[in-house]
Write a structure and sequence with these properties.
- The structure is a homodimer of 341-residue chains.
- By secondary structure, chain A is α+β, with helices and mostly antiparallel strands.
- The first copy, chain A, has twelve helices and ten strands.
- The first copy, chain A, folds into three domains: 4-78, Orthogonal Bundle (Arc Repressor Mutant, subunit A); 86-125 and 230-339, Beta-Lactamase, CATH 3.30.450.40; 129-227, Heat-inducible transcription repressor hrca homolog, domain 3 (Enolase-like, domain 1, 2-Layer Sandwich).
- Helix content of chain A is 50%, strand content 18%.
- In chain A, the strands form three sheets. A five-stranded antiparallel beta sheet of chain A has the order 7-3-10-9-8, sandwiched between helices. A three-stranded antiparallel beta sheet of chain A has the order 4-5-6, with helices on one face.
- In chain A, a hairpin with a 3-residue loop joins strand 5 (145-152) and strand 6.
- The longest helix of chain A is centred in the C-terminal third of the chain and has 20 residues, at 321-340.
- Chain A binds chain B through residues 98-101, 134-135, 137, 139, 141-142, 145, 147, 149, 151, 154-161, 163, 220-221, 223-224, 228, 237-238, 241-242, 247, 249, 252-253, 256, 341, and chain B through 98-101, 134-135, 137, 139, 141-142, 145, 147, 149, 151, 154-161, 163, 220-221, 223-224, 227-228, 237-238, 241-242, 247, 249, 252-253, 256, 341.
- Chain A binds a DNA duplex (30 and 30 nucleotides) through helix 3.
- Chains A, B: InterPro entries: GAF-like_dom_sf, HrcA, HrcA_C, WH-like_DNA-bd_sf, WH_DNA-bd_sf, WHTH_HrcA_DNA-bd, WHTH_transcript_rep_HrcA_IDD.
DNA sequence: TTTAGCACTCTAGGGCTTAGAGTGCTGATC
DNA sequence: GATCAGCACTCTAAGCCCTAGAGTGCTAAA
């Protein structure tokens, strides 16, 4: 739908603009070896491209920059996304494989992604309340201290050291553990908590103090697991300072505030979770005028067919999509493989 | 060493400047009800204060602002630090008491401190390599998966789910656990790792595969505990955008870079760890010209007489020391009490 | 000792001017 | 008919000048 020359010039303009960040004029384009046209001819084409809405001039005597529509067209129809080389994958993998648990891993993936792209990155965390509680154990540490250990989904565990109100004996503790495993094992965290709470009132009457304090400790850990974690986290925000188009401190503040409030961005992430593969949101497509000059590149991550969350980066619309998209893709894939383990 | 009038005017100037952030002129001071002097008189005093090096004028026709020496004098001799009210303490405490483990707690304390001061905050993390390994356990999860559980110092635990190369039986696993507890229990992490590594070569010969893979898994968890954690972490950096004196994006970038490299700030934190109680570092005292317009307020935190690390905030030199210092103090105290638990 | 008065200094901001970058259009050329 | 040199035109960024206003230090009177 765009003839070769138009495409060549559009792509070249995009290339120059992504590199320099300044509006691109007709002479700059004409000078490129692959173009080989006079600036006058280039100007004619540029005028057409502007009429099509793909590029625009910030003002009369400046060059042209891509419009939002232009970016979209570039991403959808022009750009080619090559796999990053194997070194990239192995370095990402080795940076992550030491992370102990699921949360650390997700955080690590985000950190790495922010590092390799030089932009901010974000992760939509898995919904904890639908995780399945696999196993509960209590490990005696001293006379009145125990460690409460919960294993979720076979791939994540949480522990907490708790001081009990009174000394206990190991057998009793085992009994409570067996009891809880029997009734809560295999339930989702929500269901498990419901069960615990309902039991607590019963037990309170029976005055089994140990049972009571162990169960309430367990409930606290569960509650913590369900509630405390933020729905998503953003890392490397400060990297965004490096982009002039965002360097206006008022804009940046608004952006960071939007990250903190998260209502805003959550819809986007949910949407991204519906689709498979990498998605690119450009400018307003991100859901608010705050993201005017930003783009967000996301990809859901899944384990055993179940989509757990989304990994992505946030940066200026003027980002190198051809590099960023594959990086997000590969990093999310690596994350998936490490989550599975 | 400063007579009453001088002190009054100096304090008033500081008050106005902390609030407004703009240079304070003689008329503004003279207008204050508690001053009751003409602007001319005030001017004379100001000239003297300038000669003493406590205040300076950015340029001839501007008012005066405190010098670094002025801030120091204010903090050392003028300011009064009142305890924040109990509500403050309880709200901090309740924000933190759900944190599961030591790292989460420290991170939480930093987050809270950043929130209540509106500035960036930092924590120097405890030196992991001198932590004592209290207890090791392996919990079978499935045919070939186990959970490695390590308890440190009675107050922190780490777990990791590991896939073993071959199936195992529970008795064997118990044997390995007993063995490791016997030889590593009570040792510091460094010592324990040393032991494990030395044993690994021996065991490799004896071809006890289970032992081998369990021990190397344990070592990986230990290694992780020792190495991965950053020496300190900074939270709420983006809050610093709110201060005009730092809003220059070049300055901010330099500052954030300094945080990331940490060599720079680490010396300061080490120094702060030597002393008891809250310490205030103003401008260059922070150790580099990058911190020109910044101050850092720190306080070591300790458990059972042993200093574990440092909690602090970073903000503009023009911060309300009278409020910030007590907040850092109380937050660190609460952190201590929660760490002890 | 305090203060009114005054001459002086410096900055922030508005208005003006200009160099230069880039454009669109026209008419000549292949 | 496509290409392009040439030209008149537009707009910005940057430098310069000027002024209002804020604030000072000093002097001399109360």
């Amino acid at each position: 739908m765009l003839n070769d020359r138009y495409q060549l010039l559009f792509r070249s303009l995009m290339g120059l603009y992504l590199n320099e960040g300044k509006p691109v004029g007709s002479t700059a384009l004409a000078k490129l070896p692959e173009v080989g046209l006079s600036s006058a001819t280039v100007r004619n084409v540029m005028a057409d491209l502007e009429r099509m809405g793909l590029i625009k001039a910030p003002h009369t005597s400046a060059g042209r920059i891509p419009t939002q529509k232009g970016y979209r067209f570039f991403v959808d129809s022009i750009a080619t996304f090559n796999l990053p080389n194997d070194d990239y994958a192995t370095s990402v993998r080795s940076a992550l494989e030491n992370d102990l648990n699921q949360d650390a891993l997700l955080q690590g993936a985000s950190r790495v992604l922010s590092g390799v792209t030089g932009m901010a990155s974000l992760v939509l965390m898995p919904k904890k309340e639908s995780e399945v509680l696999k196993y509960i154990d209590f490990i005696p540490l001293s006379e009145s201290r125990i460690l409460v250990l919960l294993v979720f989904n076979d791939r994540d565990a949480q522990n907490r050291i708790v001081e009990l109100d009174r000394p206990f004996n190991a057998d009793e503790l085992q009994k409570v553990a067996r009891f809880l495993n029997e009734y809560c094992g295999g339930k989702t965290l929500d269901q498990a908590r419901e069960f615990l709470v309902s039991r607590m009132s019963q037990i309170r009457e029976s005055a089994n103090e140990l049972m009571m304090s162990v169960i309430s400790a367990t409930d606290r850990v569960l509650q913590n697991q369900v509630q405390q974690t933020l729905p998503f986290l953003v890392m490397g925000k400060t990297k965004l300072l490096n982009y002039q188009e965002l360097a206006d401190s008022e804009k940046l503040k608004a952006l960071f505030q939007a990250f903190d409030q998260h209502n805003n961005i959550l819809g986007l992430l949910d949407k991204s979770m519906q689709a498979k593969g990498v998605q690119v949101f450009i400018g307003n497509e991100c859901g608010s005028d705050i993201y005017q000059d930003c783009s967000i590149v996301t990809r859901p991550y899944e384990v055993e067919g179940e989509i757990l969350g989304v990994l992505g980066v946030v940066g200026p619309s003027r980002m190198d999509y051809q590099k960023v998209v594959p990086k997000v893709d590969v990093t999310a894939k690596i994350l998936e493989s490490l989550l599975k383990k």
